[in-house]
Amino acid sequence: MIILSVANMANAACPDLYNHQFSTLQGEKVNLCDYQNKPILVVNTASRCGFTPQFEALEGLYSQYKDRGLLVIGFPSNDFKQELSDDKQIGDFCKLTYSVKFPMITKSSVTGKTANPFYRQLIAKTGQSPSWNFFKYVILPGGNDVYAFSSDVKPNAAEIMSKIKPSLK
Questions:
Q1: Is 94 a catalytic residue?
Q2: Catalytic residue among 14, 33, 49, 94
Q3: Shortest CA distance to 142 belongs to which of 15, 41, 21?
Q4: Considering only Cβ atoms within 10 Å of each terminal Cβ, which end of the chain, N or C, has fewer?
Q5: Percentage of the chain with pLDDT > 90?
């Protein structure tokens, strides 16, 4: 007879794409299983990039739609050599420069063989790897539909919003 704890049962019911827990720059935990029935906007970020002003639109979306289920989640990365050296600097920059309140995960790789496991799944699902900072993925509830958007597509662009809005409560 196999006995599963409540936590193990929850993880067993969590699809692979969501079966990740991350630490934020602020030391909080984010368990993606908690968001499997909500739309998620995932973005790899860098503090010293020409696309860095997109933080403003990302925070605007998060602020406007978080109560309707949207999770915006940032993944700082130095894969393109434009990120600050440590998590504290990144967190301070995001908070002080753009008043970022959406979850920002500790710095990790998002491309190639060293990409974090979540990003490897996003790349496998879409066939597209981040080609630069502020590359975006939209994951619709259930994780069956995942869309990739290049860095020059703004977070609040019509093509992104047309995917997200139908899934908002």
A1: no
A2: 49
A3: 15
A4: N
A5: 92
